């Protein structure tokens, strides 16, 4: 052995190319999920990110764009440019991609309810620029199942939503062959506390149901269908249990290979490959000691990059301060540098799969696969994902996982450093500075956005726009493809709200099961008993059981927090009116007035808490209910805004650091007691 | 709200504003009718007196919608109310949705509002949730009380209950017309129908009729009805609807409108008698019930003699207590 020449390029620890030369893998696509304020501000951000070495774009849209409202719609106004860029028409797309060569870009769009519209706008942009659309590359997220379950930016009922997705696959396969018409997301399921097995099962069942649908629609011949299987891509999450997460990714790849081969008979191995992008977990990021999140992000990134066989194709990382607010450009740059160091400084990309042959990994992967298969069988047995959504099965399963996670943190069984262990620490210098370490949207940008929307409406040919909408609605009714009519709408300067509104008229709007039933909370013990007695006493004084209206004003659809609060409140003895998501502040106040509620609990995660609270307070004043109905607000709220909210008359503010449910319940009870005494 | 004195002073103003269907006023009065603290009966009596002394008092129709969870009652109600109000500019509707309370904590999750799409600031539509409290599902203990108020303010009161079990009899006595909402199902449905609930409703709504099994379910239901209610002079109406697509809603809405427009109000006295009898049983047990029947000439006579429901309550309490 000592005399032997090293076997060049054939050693097990080297990657070889076709000629047998040792090579280094190409890095994954490095992205940052970003977009804010206005198309112009976002364009500047994208160009500067590309100059810093980012290799793809990942566009964040604001909530009105995601939910299909124009920026000047009353429900949209508090949200313009808050969590992403507002796009009202093709004119905005020209600004957003100014001086960015779209034919060379890999562009990922986090867009779902209006995915077809945004793809139509992108195609419209290409046509007006003279770019061949076959050269476009990228992804529209377009997974409505997880919108119903966790994220909340759905518009249409499941059946119509799935039809839209299918039509996009049918359009893209020949016209834009490198486009991923949808991205099956397990990301948001983990954010909603799905276990690894649930994440695997729900995402794969979703993909299988989509392929079943494509097959059933019969638009593809066998060869085309096989290629369309190859177009299915995934978007996953990576959590802090990084060894298990790595195993989860291997399980994903193996299961997908097996299902596409066995269920769909895909012969070409290339089309059975599990292709995925990743954004690492935000759920586990903490508001307390936020600098620790930098380490969490690094560790989670390892989970999806260490194993070559299960490595992500594209990675985007959150910023360390996400639990505080939207990230600033510097925060995003810091995360970008992490990826660059991992991809270019380390030796990670020089090796084949380093877990090959590991008995432990094999066993863990097999275990996850078995659990996932059992769950997939259950869902398919119910009739597929749509049926499992309609019956509330999947939602309830997730809500239960979320309650279990919260209880584990409450009891200290699950350690979160800086949150429930080692909570004493030196204040972070990172959150100092004049901006307090957080990002604020420039208020004037919303006015500019509305002005440019009005300019588009004034300049367009109204007859062409009206005709385009009529053709779109006709296609929606007749079952013909809506893709070309949508592109014509884009070219005719139809607006986002008009496109979605036209289809809302035909399809209606969906209100899903809330999943608030069947939650399990580990809320018990002496403090709960004491609180129940206190609430019984309060009920006698009030002449009714204390009533709380829980709701989410605005367009942000992350409803799990609000649902946990609703269920906890019932558990301690409140009568709870759960008003659900996507309500205007007026609707929530009207509920509270009609129900003669004692308190409104509003949950806001979009950063619009000040505007939305202001609107609720104004409306309560109009009803003359300002002193009768107290308001408490929960969400991602920077400490600087507490006093603003208290100034508006809010009685309590809860943030992610208030994770003890019993504390929150006692605090709300106090508010009602105090209000009752003063009246 | 907390102190009865403050509501007593406000009462004439509240009643006046409630007649204009002002939401805050209606809401506060409903709370008064739900409140079982001592001294509230007198205030209720005053409020009703003020309302009945109007030259043309409203006498609304009560429509009951009952059915298993998931049959789509809330979605149906949401569409029906909006359609009816859009088509008839003088019509007003109150919805009272009853949900079960937790037997452990006493709290309740009142989720029906999530299915309703509101007309913002439309005073002709009012939605109120109610917890069933310790009653066995179906109606809450104050549902009857609240209906006494709402029928004097709105042309129509729609009550939505999770209807299984013995409380069905209550809804039959409270509502002028009871609709049982069903969804297409398999064989269990037929078993369910045999269990007695089929005898209660005046009409059936087979919702989600866009589902493939709907037609089979319709025929099952029709034949079950022939077996279970052979003595009906006419076939009981079965409406096949879909709250999602709107199929069949216009027929159902037309029938409901017919009910609302029928000159009515006769229901109120029989209703009071029934619920007074129920109240006596609840408060005084079977002994009270026997006393009412044998010594006081029965519920209807005693309520009439006493000069109204609250007076009858006070009278009975002083005699029997």
Structural write-up:
- The complex is a heterodimer of chains A (679) and B (321).
- Chain A is of the alpha/beta class and 679 residues long.
- Chain A folds into two domains: 28-431, TIM Barrel (Alpha-Beta Barrel); 526-678, Rossmann fold, CATH 3.40.50.
- Chain A has a five-stranded parallel sheet with strand order 3-12-11-10-9.
- In chain A, strand 4, helix 1 and strand 5 (57-60) form a beta-alpha-beta unit.
- In chain A, helix 4 crosses helix 18 (483-491).
- Chain A is globular and about 80 Å long.
- Chain B has 321 residues and is of the alpha/beta class.
- Chain B folds into three domains: 1-55, no CATH class; 61-261, P-loop containing nucleotide triphosphate hydrolases (Rossmann fold); 266-321.
- Chain B has twelve helices and eight strands.
- Chain B has helices at residues 4-19, 23-34, 40-52, 73-87, 143-150, 168-174, 187-194, 214-228, 249-261, 267-295, 299-306, 309-320; strands at 61-67, 93-99, 108-110, 125-131, 156-162, 177-182, 203-206, 238-240.
- In chain B, strands 4-2-5-1-6-7-8 form a seven-stranded parallel sheet, sandwiched between helices.
- In chain B, helix 8 links the parallel strand 7 (203-206) and strand 8.
- Chain B is globular, with a radius of gyration of 20 Å.
- Classes of the chains: A alpha/beta (679), B alpha/beta (321).
- Strand 14 of chain A pairs parallel with strand 3 (108-110) of chain B, so a sheet runs across the interface.
Q: Write the CATH fold name of the largest domain in chain B.
A: Rossmann fold
Question: What CATH architecture of the largest domain in chain B would you give?
Answer: 3-Layer(aba) Sandwich
Order of helices and strands of chain B: HHHEHEEEHEHEHEHEHHHH
What is the domain tally of chain B? Answer: 3
* DSSP strand content of chain B: 5-15%
> How large is the radius of gyration of chain A?
25 Å
Please give the count of helices of chain B: 12
Please give the order of strands in the largest beta sheet of chain B. Answer: 4-2-5-1-6-7-8
Global Rg of chain B: 20 Å
CATH architecture of the largest domain in chain A: Alpha-Beta Barrel
- The quaternary organization reads as heterodimer
Q: Look at the helices and sheets of chain B and give the structural class.
A: alpha/beta
Give the count of structural domains of chain A: 2
**What is the CATH level 1 assignment of the largest domain in chain B?**
Alpha Beta
What share of the residues of chain A lie within helices?
40-55%
CATH homologous superfamily of the largest domain in chain B, by name? P-loop containing nucleotide triphosphate hydrolases
Shape of chain A: globular
The largest pleated sheet of chain A is described as:
5 strands, parallel
């Amino acid at each position: 052995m000592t005399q032997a020449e090293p076997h060049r390029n054939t050693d097990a620890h080297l990657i070889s190319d076709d000629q047998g030369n040792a090579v280094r893998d190409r890095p994954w696509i490095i992205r940052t999920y970003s977009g804010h304020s206005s198309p112009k501000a976002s364009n500047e951000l994208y160009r500067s990110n590309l100059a810093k070495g980012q290799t793809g774009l990942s566009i964040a849209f604001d909530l009105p764009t995601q939910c299909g409202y124009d920026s000047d719609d009353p429900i949209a106004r508090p949200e313009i440019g808050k969590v992403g860029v507002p796009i009202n028409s093709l004119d905005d797309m020209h600004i957003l991609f100014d001086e960015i060569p779209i034919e060379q870009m890999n562009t990922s769009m986090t867009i779902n309810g209006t995915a077809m519209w945004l793809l139509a706008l992108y195609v419209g942009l290409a046509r007006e620029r003279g770019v061949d659309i076959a050269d476009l590359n990228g992804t529209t997220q377009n997974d409505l199942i997880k919108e119903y379950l966790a994220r909340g930016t759905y518009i249409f009922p499941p059946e119509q939503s799935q039809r839209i997705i299918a039509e996009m696959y049918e359009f893209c396969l020949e016209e834009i062959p490198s486009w991923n018409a949808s991205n099956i997301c397990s990301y948001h399921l983990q954010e909603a506390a799905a276990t690894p097995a649930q994440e695997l099962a729900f995402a794969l069942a979703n993909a299988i149901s989509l392929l079943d649908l494509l097959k059933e629609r019969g638009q593809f011949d066998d060869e085309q269908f096989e290629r369309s299987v190859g177009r299915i891509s995934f978007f996953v999450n990576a959590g802090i249990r990084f060894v298990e997460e790595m195993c989860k990714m291997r399980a994903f790849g193996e299961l997908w290979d097996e299902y596409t081969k066995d269920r769909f008979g895909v012969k070409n191995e290339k089309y059975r490959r599990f292709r995925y992008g990743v954004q690492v977990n935000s759920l586990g990021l903490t508001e307390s000691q936020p600098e620790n999140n930098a380490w969490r992000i690094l560790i989670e990134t390892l989970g999806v990059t260490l194993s070559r066989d299960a490595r992500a194709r594209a990675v985007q990382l959150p910023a360390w301060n996400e639990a505080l607010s939207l990230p600033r450009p510097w925060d995003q740059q810091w995360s970008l540098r992490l990826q660059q160091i991992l991809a270019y400084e380390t030796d990670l990309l020089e090796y084949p799969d380093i877990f090959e042959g590991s008995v432990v990994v094999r066993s863990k992967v097999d275990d996850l696969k078995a659990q996932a298969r059992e769950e997939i069988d259950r869902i398919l047995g119910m009739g597929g994902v749509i049926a499992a959504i309609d019956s509330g099965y999947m939602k309830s399963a997730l809500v239960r996982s979320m309650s279990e996670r919260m209880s584990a943190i409450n009891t200290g069984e699950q350690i979160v450093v800086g949150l429930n262990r080692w909570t004493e620490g030196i204040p972070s210098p990172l959150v100092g500075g004049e901006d307090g370490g957080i990002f604020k949207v420039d208020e004037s940008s919303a006015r500019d956005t509305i002005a440019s929307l009005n300019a588009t409406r004034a300049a367009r040919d109204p007859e062409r726009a009206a005709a385009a909408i009529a053709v779109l609605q006709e296609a929606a009714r007749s079952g013909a493809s809506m893709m070309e009519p949508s592109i014509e709408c884009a070219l005719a300067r139809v607006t986002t709200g008009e496109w979605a509104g036209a289809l809302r008229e035909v399809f209606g709007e969906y209100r899903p099961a809330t999943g608030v039933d069947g939650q399990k909370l580990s809320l018990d013990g002496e403090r709960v008993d004491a609180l129940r007695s206190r609430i019984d006493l309060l009920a006698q004084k009030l002449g009714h059981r204390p009533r709380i209206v829980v709701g989410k004003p605005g367009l942000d659809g992350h409803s799990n927090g609000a649902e946990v609060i609703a269920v906890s409140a019932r558990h301690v003895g409140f009568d709870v009116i759960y008003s659900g998501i996507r309500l205007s502040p007026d609707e929530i106040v009207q509920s509270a007035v009609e129900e003669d509620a004692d308190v409104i609990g509003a949950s806001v995660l979009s950063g619009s808490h000040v505007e939305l609270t202001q609107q609720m307070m104004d409306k309560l004043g109009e009803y003359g209910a300002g002193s009768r109905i107290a308001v408490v607000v929960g969400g991602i709220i920077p400490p600087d805004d507490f006093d603003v909210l208290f100034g508006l008359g809010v009685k309590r503010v809860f943030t992610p650091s208030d994770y003890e449910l019993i504390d929150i319940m006692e605090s709300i009870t106090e508010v009602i007691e105090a209000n009752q005494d003063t009246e | 709200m907390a102190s009865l004195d403050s509501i007593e002073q406000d009462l004439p103003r509240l009643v006046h504003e409630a007649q204009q269907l002002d939401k805050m006023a209606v809401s506060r009065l409903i709370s008064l009718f739900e409140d079982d603290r001592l001294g509230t009966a007198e205030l209720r009596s005053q409020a009703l007196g003020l309302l009945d002394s109007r030259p043309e008092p409203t006498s609304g129709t009560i429509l009951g919608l009952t059915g298993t969870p998931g049959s789509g009652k809330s979605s149906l109600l949401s569409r029906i109310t909006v359609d009816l109000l859009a088509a008839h500019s003088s019509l007003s509707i109150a919805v009272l949705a009853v949900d079960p309370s937790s037997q452990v904590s006493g709290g309740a999750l009142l989720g029906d509002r999530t299915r309703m799409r509101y007309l913002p600031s439309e005073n002709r539509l009012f939605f109120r949730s109610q917890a069933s409290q310790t009653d066995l599902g179906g109606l809450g203990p104050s549902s009857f009380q609240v209906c006494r108020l709402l029928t004097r303010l709105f042309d129509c009161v729609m009550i939505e209950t999770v209807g299984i079990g013995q409380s069905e009899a209550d809804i039959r006595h409270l509502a002028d017309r009871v609709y049982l909402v069903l969804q297409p199902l398999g064989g269990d449905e037929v078993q369910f129908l045999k269990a007695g609930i089929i005898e209660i409703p005046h009409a059936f709504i087979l919702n989600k009729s866009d589902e493939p099994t709907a037609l089979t379910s319709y025929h099952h239901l029709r034949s079950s009805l022939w077996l279970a209610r052979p003595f009906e002079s006419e076939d009981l109406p079965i409406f096949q609807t879909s709250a999602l697509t709107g199929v069949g809603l216009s027929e159902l809405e037309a029938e409901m409108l017919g009910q609302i427009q029928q000159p009515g109000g006769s229901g109120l006295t029989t209703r009071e008698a029934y619920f007074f009898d129920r109240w006596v049983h609840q408060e005084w047990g079977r002994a009270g019930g026997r006393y009412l029947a044998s010594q006081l000439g029965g519920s209807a006579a005693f309520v009439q003699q006493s000069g109204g429901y609250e007076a009858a309550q006070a009278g009975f309490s002083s005699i029997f207590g």
